[in-house]
Every structure is written in C-alpha cells, then in structure tokens.
C-alpha cells in the first residue's frame, strides 16, 4: 500500500472475536480518539426497526403523490437510489446535485418532497430545499428525515411539514441504508420493509467480518484497489459500496480504492470481490454485510472508519470562493483540451496509481461516463473510478484527499452553463454554486499535493466524454 500505515496493535483478533466486540459496540477496536461511540447505531437498527415496519408501510400507503423527489446528499441519498434502480421504478427521483439543468428537470406537479439529511445544514440541501419551496411552498407536500434537533427539524416544524422521521443520531449517513433514510424511500417504492430487515437479520456476521479482514490484508500487501463486481440490474449498489469503502477507509494516508463495475477488471494491485444479488429484498442483507466488513477493515488498517476528517475542506473552500466572487468571476484553474488528456495522463500517472474522473455535469450521461472510465482503464492499465460532482465530495472525496497520494484527478466541467437557475435567497445561481464546488475541491486536492487537471466539455452533447482518452 502506498503511504504510511498507522501503527495499531490490535490486528490479530480472529473473525469471531472481532465480530463479538463489534456488535457489542466496543469502541476500543479503533484508534483513540475516535467517533465510534456515536456512530454504531447501525449494528442493530435492523432489529430495532422491525416493530416499526408496519407503521412505515402504512405511511407509504397513504402517500398518494405520483412522484417522490428526494432532496439529499451523500449517504442519505445513495441507498434510496439503489432501491429505486433495483426495481426500475421512476416514481422516486433522487436530487443530489447542484447542476442547474438537472434541477430544472425535476417535476413539481403531484410531488411529495422527501428532504433527507442527517445534519440538515449542508449547503446543497439548503439550496435545493430553497428552490423547491419557492416552487411549492406548501408544508403538506414535504416530509423530512433527519436527526433530532437539527436545522432541518426546525424548518419542518416552522413550515408544518406533513411528517418528520427522527433517525437514530448514532448512525452516520453512509451506514444509514437500513434506518429511516433508506427504509422510508424503500417503502414509498413498494418494498416489503419486513423482508428487507429479515434479509439483514439472516446474514452471517462472522463471514461479513472475515470479508473485511481479507480485503484489509490484501490492501496492506499492496493490493489496495478493490474491484467490486455487481450484477447489471444492481449496478447502483456498486456506487453505495464505493462510497462506504472510500469514505470509511481513506484517511491518515491509508485507503482501499473501490472500483464498482459490472464486468471483471483484474490487475496485480487489485483485489476482486463479486457481489451476489438475486432479488431486491436481498439488498437488506448486503447493506449490513458490507457495513460490518468495512468496520472490520478499519480495525485492521488502524483507522477510524466512522469519521471523515477531510470532507469539509472542499465545503470551506467553496464558501471562500463564493465569498470572494467579483462580477461572477471564478478562479482560473489549469485546463487542458480533451485531446491532450491521454498524453497528460501518460506523463503524470505512475504504476499503481489510480485515476479519478470527476464530472461536474448534468445527470443523464451515466452510461457515457462509465464508458470513459473503462477506456481509461484499457488505455492506461490503471484502476479508474468515476463519479458526478458534487455527489462524490460527500463520499469518495474523502479518499482522494485523506488516503494515499496515489490518485490522479481529472475534473470535467461545462464549457458553458448547462442552464440558468437562481438559488433563492442567495446572490449566486446554481451554475456558480457547482462551479465554486469544483474550484473548492480543486484547491483542496492541490493543498494535499494531489495531481489534478481540468477539461471543459459541451454539457449538451449526447456524449460529452467522447473525445477524452
């Protein structure tokens, strides 16, 4: 593994011993200080919510809106997207971007807005809620999922939201798939909540922990790229595992680099795991399996899998960019043409690096982005990950800045605004906001000595990535 591995002596526990201590919430499994004491509620949430399954289903049966628009970011939005895509439903729309074209396309007629945020105060959620409320200022059309006592809880009370689900505050966003953050959207999509929870209860926790130990030992032996192969129907599950692994392990100069894919990708520095999913209700068990595995990985790697020490850096830089706007001008950053990228990568990347493609573009080109990711891997032989900004800033972005310095980043940004759309109550629009977010992360990556470049493309093109690599 590239980078200094922190010294932590408790790495010789058997899988059985580690499992017993994990499910009993033993915070000494990870280096001190850690935040584990307030982050282990997920270990038994599938049991604790079993008695509430009927009431969640009843709520969902009474929600007669034609569409559900989930406003969220990071861990609170990826699990619902997994549930949605697994059954191919178009009833739920996950809005977890600040791209103006994507936001403008969101329906507003006969819609229930599900505002989903642990803290309730993230820049993206506040901006998206302000936009939605300007179009639909009726509390009866809104439901919130948040922790008790948050800014979002206060807004929900002030505006008379139809309902507020108060989540267990001892659960972090990326571990929240089997809490209200995942189960309420799943119920609205028609899932059998009891079946999802039963699926989680049926897994072998020792086998899950053993999986985490195996992956961590492979990383320590130099195979720090983890290829996660998932069935095509469950491709979104790969994105959920990616954020769980990357944000949980990528810190203190250590990290496991997850590469979700639907096809096998092998190389000397990769460890490969195949995820077997057959029915959408199997997702309950897979969520818990990987949560246990990643917690065990943190123990073996000697890091706290529940904190995210570098995620706020880009947000701070974003605010700095927005605070210093002059006539709408944004910082000028190093940029190359699409045709120059292959040569730049050839002279910049080293063996055992990985490439991170970061697309600050409208949603809708997911297939084309995956094709680009595969082209980069085929051309260079390097592992390549790809994601949309600002979504990844709340997940894999932690790995890029806090993990080993073996990442080469390319930001793909629009040459012109994808649409015009103001942020209500702000002096900037959504195009300026997402541009400031990409600039802020560019600065954060540079501050950590990461290699990063920009390419501007036409966001309206059928394939904005066609000329890259």
- Overall mean pLDDT score? 94
Across the major sheet, the strand order is: 2-1-3-4-5
What is the β-strand count? 13
What is the helix content?
40-55%
Report the structural category: alpha/beta
- Low-pLDDT ranges: 1-10
Shape: globular
Tally the helices: 17
Strand content: 5-15%
Q: Largest sheet, if any?
A: 5 strands, parallel
End-to-end CA span: 27 Å
Strand/helix succession? HHHEHEHEHEHEHHHEHEEHHEHEHEHEHE
Cα-based radius of gyration, to the nearest Å: 21 Å
Give the secondary structure arrangement, pairings included.
Layout: H1 15-23, H2 45-48, H3 53-62, E1 67-71, H4 75-87, E2 92-95, H5 100-104, E3 111-116, H6 123-135, E4 142-146, H7 151-158, E5 163-166, H8 180-188, H9 193-201, H10 205-220, E6 225-229, H11 235-249, E7 257-261, E8 270-274, H12 283-301, H13 311-323, E9 335-336, H14 341-348, E10 354-359, H15 366-380, E11 383-388, H16 397-402, E12 407-414, H17 430-447, E13 451-457
Parallel strand pairs: 1-2, 1-3, 3-4, 4-5, 6-7, 6-8, 9-13, 10-11, 10-12, 12-13
Helix pairs in contact: 1-10, 3-8, 4-8, 4-11, 9-12, 10-12, 11-12, 13-17
Q: What key phrases describe this protein's structure?
A:
five-stranded parallel beta sheet, alpha/beta, 17 helices, disordered N terminus, 469 residues
